[in-house]
Design a protein that fits this description.
Family: Belongs to the G-protein coupled receptor 1 family.
CATH architecture of the largest domain: Up-down Bundle
Number of strands: 2
Strand content: under 5%
Main location: membrane
Order of helices and strands: HHHHHHEEHHHH
CATH topology of the largest domain: Rhopdopsin 7-helix transmembrane proteins
Structural class: mainly alpha
Radius of gyration: 27 Å
Number of helices: 10
Pfam family, one: 7tm_1
Strand order of the largest sheet: 1-2
Distance between the termini: 96 Å
CATH superfamily of the largest domain: Rhodopsin 7-helix transmembrane proteins
Largest sheet: 2 strands, antiparallel
Keywords: Cell membrane, Disulfide bond, G-protein coupled receptor, Glycoprotein, Membrane, Receptor, Transducer, Transmembrane, Transmembrane helix
Subcellular location: Cell membrane
């Protein structure tokens, strides 16, 4: 079982890991043809759009003349995680197109199956940092200011990347390739990895995020009732953060919750055909809903993020100003060149007179 299937997206359940298992257990046959035809196109579309949109977000943050705020540092790292996630999706798409045959070798089998769960871990922990930052900014605006400095934010991001890699190490150790199949070799390591994914990738992060979000909403409500305008900038940033949080929850919570019946299936429960078929289709749908989040975040930045919109406008104005200055410089240079040429042409005529 895989928390983030790459060589076989449906291997959330034992049914999906072996498409023929239903027939061997007198279950109804489940056709995978729609998976082979539809899924590669969908995954490649998400990959291309995700890479383009997240590169755009990163360019705005990097090229803008003003330094990033703490929330923007976290959002920028979240965009990097989404970018890395979408950049590895083509390997998955090709594998599905080849009916889940892995033709990229052992090294890529390990790298892809570590990179994707690692970036999902990092994404949710960056959202934790964003939630805590908004919580401190709104609920405790006068205290803990040292924790909201850009230097602390950058150190926190480095620690999140390290933590994401460490939590994904079981996949690196356990992955192997045999007869064009990229799979997990040891069942016990796979089971431990699934429990880690459920606890450290869902229950603990969601508890922290929901706790911070409830406090943030309560604070925003009280300030709105008091018609306080002093913190309008914080409210704008918080609106974007809340939109990104809710989008993540909508896209990924169904997938995480499916891990519970999937683990029960591993322990011998929910073995009937109907349960396994339902888990197969839910695994497909919820997985593809989850990766859709990688292109949803940049869209939310543009639609909801007022500060991000302002940065984009300022950046375009900056580019237009540079272009205008360049054209003006070229035009002036051309005029000077023509003037010099005319003077040089006129001097022989004067000398002849």
């Amino acid at each position: 079982m895989d928390p983030l299937p790459t060589s076989l997206p449906a291997n959330l359940t034992s049914l999906a890991e072996n498409g023929d298992q239903t027939d061997n257990s007198n279950c109804s046959s489940v056709s995978h043809e729609w998976v082979y035809s539809f899924v590669p196109v969908y995954i490649l579309s998400i990959s291309v759009l995700g890479m383009a949109l997240n590169i755009f977000v990163l360019m705005v943050f990097i090229l803008h003349k003003k330094s990033c705020s703490v929330a923007e540092i976290y959002m920028g790292n979240l965009a990097v995680a989404d970018l890395l996630l979408t950049s590895f999706l083509p390997f998955w798409a090709v594998s599905v197109w080849n009916q889940f045959e892995w033709k990229f070798g052992l090294a890529m089998c390990k790298i892809v199956n570590v990179a994707i769960p690692m970036n999902v871990y990092c994404s949710i922990y960056f959202l934790i940092l964003v939630s805590i930052d908004r919580y401190l900014a709104l609920v405790h605006p006068l205290s803990h200011q040292k924790l909201r400095r850009p230097k602390c934010a950058k150190i926190s991001c480095v620690l999140v990347w390290i933590l994401g890699f460490l939590l994904s190490l079981p996949k690196l150790i356990n992955r192997t390739v045999e007869e064009f199949s990229c799979y997990e070799e040891h069942y016990l390591i796979s089971l431990i990895s699934d429990f880690m994914f459920l606890v450290f990738g869902f229950f603990i992060p969601i508890s922290i995020i929901l706790s911070c979000t409830i406090k943030i909403l309560q604070t925003l409500r009280s300030r709105f009732m008091e018609e306080e305008k002093a913190k309008s900038k914080d409210r704008k940033a918080t609106t974007l953060v809340l939109a990104v949080l809710f989008a993540f929850l909508i896209c990924w919570v169904p997938y995480y919750l499916l891990k519970i019946p999937s683990l029960l299936n591993d322990f011998g429960y929910l073995q009937d055909c109907n349960s396994r078929i339902i888990m197969f289709y839910c695994g497909q749908i919820f997985m593809y809903l989850g990766i859709f989040n990688s292109i949803l975040n940049p869209i939310l930045y543009v639609i909801v993020g007022k500060n991000f919109q302002k940065k984009v406008r300022e950046l375009f104005k900056q580019w237009n100003h540079r272009r205008g200055s360049t054209f003006s410089l070229i035009s002036t240079s051309t005029k000077i060149t023509r003037s010099v040429k005319l003077q040089l042409q006129a001097e022989p005529l004067k000398a002849a007179e």
